[in-house]
Amino acid sequence: MMREISAGGVVVRRAAEGWQLAAIEPRKEPSDSGRTAKKSAPKVTLALPKGLVDAGEKAEQTALREVREETGLTTSALTKLADIKYVYVRSWGDGQRVFKIVSFYLLKYESGMIDDVTPEMRLEVKRALWIPLEEAARTLAYRGERDVVRRALQYLQSHAEV
Fold it and tell me: Tens digits of per-residue pLDDT, 37-92?
């Protein structure tokens, strides 16, 4: 089985209404199912920014880089939150099973405009946006990422200095 190592970030900033989280809406491939029975509005998928660790790069560096590329934000690391491990089957190419580990870091917003990404990154990211941190634990698409957001919220609640 193939292995992939990735890293990503839970980017937070304090706003007047409370903590906010930077989320992305990944660009999806159009469905080839051929079904035309019922046309409904496509479901919005929100996720955390993340990507593969490059050769010679540490996971924390990857998290900072991927956040910058996928959201347009510059951040600083506060702490490592968790490693999520799972197996998926590639929906492209060879359909191979892949064992994946994603290290997530709690990152503090420093500068930049959300969704200020390059045209090349638009192939992967439809948009980046701020959402309320407390809602993210319910609205993110992936269970592991929702769990990581809950850890981030606990960390912030127990570290008032942030």
Answer: 455 556 889 999 999 999 999 999 999 999 999 999 999 999 999 999 999 998 87
Q: Which residues pair with 11 in a beta bridge?
A: 107
Q: Which residues does residue 82 pair with via DSSP β-bridges, in sequence order?
A: 104
State the CB neighbour count (10 A cutoff) for residue 137.
18
CA nearest 107: which of 160, 62, 53?
Answer: 62
Neighbouring C-beta atoms of residue 60, cutoff 10 Å: 16
Strands 97-111 and 125-132: unpaired
Take residue 101 and report the two structure tokens written for it.
Answer: 């580990």
- Answer yes or no: are the C-beta atoms of 103 and 63 closer than 8 Å: yes
Rounded distance, CA 158 to CA 142, Å? 25
Give yes or no for a contact between 77 and 64, defined as CB atoms under 8 angstroms apart: yes
Is the distance from CB of 139 to CB of 44 less than 8 angstroms?
A: no
CA neighbours closer than 13 Å in the CB half-sphere of residue 55: 0
Sorted by where each starts, the structural domains of the chain and their CATH numbers stand as 2-27+44-158 (3.90.79.10)
- In which element (H, E) is residue 8 found? strand 2-15
Element (H, E) at 106: strand 97-111
Residue showing tokens 């540490």:
58
Considering the entire predicted model, what is its pTM?
0.89
